[in-house]
Amino acid sequence: MNRSLSLLVAFVVSISATAQTLQSPSQFLGYDLGTQFSRHHQVIDYFKHVETQKPLQVKLEKYGETNERRPLMLAFVSSEDNLKNLENIRENNLKNAGILEGTAASTNVAIVWLSYNVHGNEASSTEASMSTIYKLLTEKQDYLKNTVVIIDPCINPDGRDRYVNWYNETASAPYDIDQEASEHQEPWPGGRPNHYLFDLNRDWAWATQVESASRLKAYNKWMPHIHVDFHEQGINEPYYFAPAAEPFHEVISDWQRDFQTQIGKNHSKYFDAEGWLYFTRERFDLLYPSYGDTYPTYMGAIGMTYEQGGHGRAGLGILNDEGDVLTLIDRLTHHTVTGLSTVEISSKNAEKLNTEFAKFFDNKNLKYKSYVLQGDTDKINSLTALLDKHEIDYGFAKDGKVSGYNYTTAKQEQMNTTAKDLVVSTNQPKGKMVKVLFEPNTKLSDSLTYDITAWSVPYAYGLNAVASRSLVQPANNRTREIIPNSLKNSGATGYVVEWGNIQDAQFLAELLKSGIRVRFTEKPFTTQGKTYDRGSLIIVRGDNKKVDDFDDRFAAIAFSHRRTFDAISSGFSTSGPDFGSPDIKLVNPPKIAMLSGDYTSSLSYGELWHFFEQQLQYPVTSINTDDLSRVNLSKFNVLIMPNGYYGGLLNDNLIDKLKTWMRSGGKLIAIDGALNSFADKEGFGLKRNKPEDTVSEEDKENAKRIKYADRERDYTKNLITGAIFKTDVDTTHPMAFGYDDNYFTLKLGSSSYSLLDNGYNVAYLGKNPKNVSGYAGKDALKKLDNSLIFGEQRMGSGSIIYMVDNVMFRSFWENGKLFFVNSIFFVNNNLVEL
What is the DSSP letter of 76? Predict the structure, then answer.
């Protein structure tokens, strides 16, 4: 045997031996896949094993880390040639979309991204990710010749391990299929959300969570042609796959719609062959931009949700209502089949996918060419930080004028622009995503939707805006405005900081934590030629005699928060209250408690928990609802009730306990569903607007004759599915300090309460309110006449604050958060704790 032939034989033997060392998931884990739930570290270990055994075809990349320090990983799987050329493939794809300059050298490789387990207790999909990568490398190598498959085995490791650890320690052996068994009754808060109890499948657009922000960095580097989000649904539903349901957003192309159908038909041939049930075109629409199917779709991909029956109730196996036992093995098998089917049809259509992907980024036909936004600098900077996460380009305006749709007045008007105003245009590759995020009112092809129908960024960030049909050219060489440093003055009586946004609240929180005493004004005052509005913070030297290096400490905190301040030489004001006036009140550092556990919405609790820890950075004590009856509430002067369902908790004794605490100076903040516990109850001024008051006798009679098949659609006239309303605001009330006369609220439902007879109506809707964006049924609108949005009722020395609309919802409605902060720090906060 000559030397060349010997080398060839040795090479073939080597390759064969390497292939034989790749273990299946069952071999590697030591149990048959689907007979146990795998912990996250075991899944990562298996993917590392695959990379070790197939280094020429698999590359692992860590793209982030969760709050509980679990790694977020991607696996890149393809042919050896493609993996060698991976960076060129990535760059060519971005060039094809116009995101990178230059001409793509080749556009015949499909990029398919498979995302698993965004909801932690929908745990079959992560098991399927291991099966899928193994089968791609051992049975479906042909698919990889012209396809790069990106696998995220677990988007939500913290939630998954919360569920898996609970199930593994709870389940019977063998598992119990009875639906009533404890292993099918997941305790609060469940494994669905992440560490902060956020639903990560609603966070793609807002990226409030570390998992989402990290993933977007990786996603935008690749911009795949196909993205699949693997889920689970109720135990009695079989399997859902594309095509999606109406409404489809209008920016979705005909090709995207058509290829969804092609993919669904490809899946159906495999499901039909096995006799597996499935459904399509129902329930899961493509509208709200923050899902794992819609966000990729608005970024040019074919974005899809696949839903397997099961969810957190199913465990390893459960008897469903049709008498069939649904097992984890069934569930992961179905997900494996649709995953492989997706790669298969993508491989067969690789060139077409690339061609149509490039077409998506042609934005010349969009109605609005530019959005110009003006307002508070901090709010502008918060918005540009969001745009940076999505790698959306923006600039700043020139001094001049722009005409277009005015978001505040809902009219075609002209706006005077300055160099401080933000310009975001659609003449960029991601122009369609710009349209989706900024459009004044989303076009609805169907009123039956799966989520909210309004989210427009200018309203969410509290900015004045104009949508122009003309392209507005930004000024050259402009960046976001830098706030100049202020100068400390050891001879000053004190310092004044204006109040108007959440960054001011973060500054106040740190001052209080640092032991610096702060006042705020309830009335405007003028001093040294400048007028300061209500809510302005006043830090008086005389209040802080015990603070060492007062000026240095104050200035350092102001600098770290990029706050400007004015040194004031005298407490004697030119007009308005002097510094010692009763209208300039001390902010007593609140001691805050918040309910958690059963009866609270885990999502609402998580939004608040995240806000206090990650945004406001102010301490809060969580009290489990099981312990409320025995807790000494006198330790706290603020109690927050998140959105929830407290009917089974708040008996007469607990209501009396809360009343006594409030009369003694406590402040209760009730949010959204929590208001149900106080509405129409003795001692509380909150009254429900009665639906029957708005329905005519004729309508009542007609309702009786509605056909069975039409009932669901007819009921939409009673619904508000996440619509935006313009409210009136009492800017003289401390809860509204920092706001204008009008505030745009995101109303999530049709709950309606009358204006308070004996209390303060801080934000409210007047006669015949109209939704400025989003869907609201005609009967639901009638109920909103003269209805409360935010209000305060005094009870003895304390207060109860009613927040009908949840300003913390998914943590993206930035302009509402100051109402909540004001409620904590300013409203009725004048009791000194000795």
Answer: E
